[in-house]
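Shipment paperwork, digital attachment
Item: protein structure file
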Amino acid sequence: MTKSILDRTCIPLNRVELTKMKVKAMRRGLWFKVLSRTERASIDLTIKVVERVRSIFLARVLGAIIRKLLDAMESRVARVMREVGRGLAEKLSGIAQSWGNKSAHHWAEDPSFVQYLAVNYMNMPAMFKA
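Attachment content:
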């Protein structure tokens, strides 16, 4: 069973993928910091007992836990790109198009431009942020 998590990633809920997620979280120091004891136990028990998750209920429970881990593992730049950079790129693209720039409609989909705007926003003094 494949579970979509925050429309960013599809993670097959099986022993191998859950083990990879656990190792990644432990290496980053997030396993004990982000997850409660019951959440850690749920993943550990699933890894030990189940080869592939078939239960929808278990998939929902594990999906919420994995979503929590993925949020914690997401870099600051990636988060700002998603939350702020994309919106800024769309606004600037619209303004440039209204001024007659024909190629500006591609700006909002350009990940490099979105990243540029996100990094500029992160480095902007707080008094200028809305």
